[in-house]
Amino acid sequence: MNFLLRSLLLLAILFCTHTIVFAQSKDVKDIIALMRTEEEVWNRGDIDAYVDLYAPGDSTRMIYNGGTGITRGKDSILAFYKRYWPKEKMGHLTLQHDGIEKISDKFYYVSGFFTVSYPSGKAVKGRFSGLVKKIKGRWYLYTDHSGS
Any idea what the CATH number is for the domain that residue 100 is in? Predict the structure, then answer.
């Protein structure tokens, strides 16, 4: 009887540990879906749809290497992308997160790697990090930082 009780307890602990380690919250799943949407619209060459993934408002920002290094507000971010990333230069984007960390119910910190590959075989690789913000139940890019 004692052996059976210990075996059941061990199985219960293993099951709970497995569930905790492998379960993703709805928020994390939604944030990963946001990343897949980023890839999808970028790879279609739809820069307007890509920038629609940024949070509305002037406090939204994109931080990058070169120039002034920061662009604030969704309209300015769209103008930046249209100027420096015309459709023929967009290539194929792949994102791989290496961390999604909850800061609050409205904010998560996300980091990882990006690759933009081109038909010529050339690729630009780098890191990204930023904050995503939940507004009215939807996740948006709020602060986006990337560099190669």
Answer: 3.10.450.50
Determine the Cα–Cα distance for residues 14 and 67; give it in Å rounded to an integer. Answer: 53
Residue 5 lies in a domain: no
- How far, in whole angstroms, is CA 41 from its chain's centroid? 13
Rounded CA gap, 13 and 45, in Å? 48
**pLDDT tens for residues 85-102?**
888 889 999 999 999 999
Domain count for the chain, please give it.
Answer: 1
Q: In this structure, what are the phi and psi dihedrals at residue 27, rounded to the nearest 5 degrees?
A: -60, -45
20: which strand partners? Answer: none
Do the Cβ atoms of 132 and 147 come closer than 8 Å?
A: no
Full-model pTM: 0.81
Measured distance CA(128)–CA(16) in Å, rounded? 33
Residue 84 backbone phi and psi in degrees, to 5? -100, -15
